[in-house]
Amino acid sequence: MSSGGGADDSADGAEGSDDRPDETVAERDSAAKAAARRARLRRGRGREESRLLLALRSGRVRIGIAVGVVLLLALGLAAWFTPVLSVRTVRVDGLAVVPEDQVLDALQVPDGLSMMRIDTTAMAERVAQLPKVRSVRVRREFPSTVQVTVVERTPVLYYDAEDGPHLLDCDGVEFAIEPPPGTAPKLVTDHPGGTDPVTRAAVTVMAVVPPSLGVGEVVARSVSDIALELRDGRTVLWGGTGDSQKKAAVVGPLLTQPGKVFDVSSPNLVTVK
After folding, report:
1. Which residue numbers in the chain have pLDDT < 70?
2. Looking at residue 229, what is its pLDDT?
3. Residue-by-residue DSSP string for the chain
4. Which of 33, 150, 135 is nearest to 91 (CA)?
C-alpha cells in the first residue's frame, strides 16, 4: 500500500507539474497585451500632445502675423497722414549756372506734407521748365530728404541777333540770350534759329567736333556746306552731317600737316591746301 500511495502521489505531482506551464503562458499573454495597450495609449497621448503643440505654435504664428499687419498698417497710416516723415532737407546737385534758389522755388516742396505724398514727377516737370535746365530727376531719400539732380544746358553755338547773342545747346534749343562763354563758337548763317534746318545741321556737326580743334566760327551756307573757322586762322571744310564720326576721327591727324584749308567733306579722300 505504501508503494501504491507513492504511485498516486507521483501521478498527482505529474498533473500539478502540467498545469503550471499553461498558467505561465496565459499570464505572459495577458502581460504582453497589457504592455501593448499601454504602448498604444502612450503613442496616442504622444500624438495628441504633438497636435496640441502644433496647434499652439500655429496659433502663435497667426497672432504674430496679425500683430505685424496691424503694426505695419499703423506705421503706414502714420507715414501717410502725419508729418513724421515730412521733408526736412532738399539737396540739389549738378548746378553750375542755374541759381539754386530758382530750383527750390520751382520745386515748391510743401511744408509738413509726408514724404509718401509728395509728387516728385510734378516737381521735376516744374524744374524742367527753367530755360537752362536740360533734364532733372527728383527722388525721395527716406526718412526726410528730397534729392534733385540737374543737367544744365551748355552752349555749343551762339548767333548774334538784335536783342543780343542767342545760345544754342546740343539739342538745337535756344535757351538764353546773354554773352556766350569764351569757348562757344559763333554761328554764321542766313537764317539762324532753333527751327532752321541749317542751324540744326551746324549744331549736329559741333556735337561731334573735338574741342581740341579750337573752333571760333561755324559758317553754314547750307545743310551740306559747313565750314569750321579755327581760332588759329585755319579752315576745315566739313561738308554735311554725314560721316561726321569718321570726319572727327581724321581731322585731328590731318591738322598736323602744314596748310591753311583742310577738306574732310569726303573723309576717305581728304585734301590739304
Report:
1. 1-23, 25-29, 31-50, 52-53, 55-56, 58-59, 61-62, 66-67, 69-84
2. 98
3. -HHHHHHHHHHHHHHHHHHHHHHHHHHHHHHHHHHHHHHHHHHHHHHHHHHHHHHHHHHHHHHHHHHHHHHHHHHHHHHHHSGGGB--EEEEES-SSS-HHHHHHHH-PPTT-BTTT--HHHHHHHHHTSTTEEEEEEEEETTTEEEEEEEE---SEEEEETTEEEEE-TT--EEEESPPPTTSPEEE-SS-STT-HHHHHHHHHHTTS-GGG-EEEEEEEETTEEEEEETTS-EEEEESSTTHHHHHHHHHHHTTSS-SEEE-SSTTS-EE-
4. 150
> Could you please report the per-residue DSSP string of 127-173?
HHTSTTEEEEEEEEETTTEEEEEEEE---SEEEEETTEEEEE-TT--
**Per-residue pLDDT tens digits for 130-163:** 999 999 999 999 889 999 999 999 999 999 999 9
pLDDT of residue 182: 87
How far is it, in rounded angstroms, from Cα 144 to Cα 118? 11
Q: How far is CA 105 from CA 179, 195, 206, in A?
A: 25, 30, 34
What the block records as the C-alpha cell of 48 is: 495628441
In order of 86, 123, 161, the CA distances from 106 in angstroms are 18, 7, 30
* Single-letter amino acid code for the residue at 70: V
The dihedral of CA 249, 250, 251, 252: what is its sign?
positive
Give dist(CA 182, CA 273) in Å, integer. Answer: 29
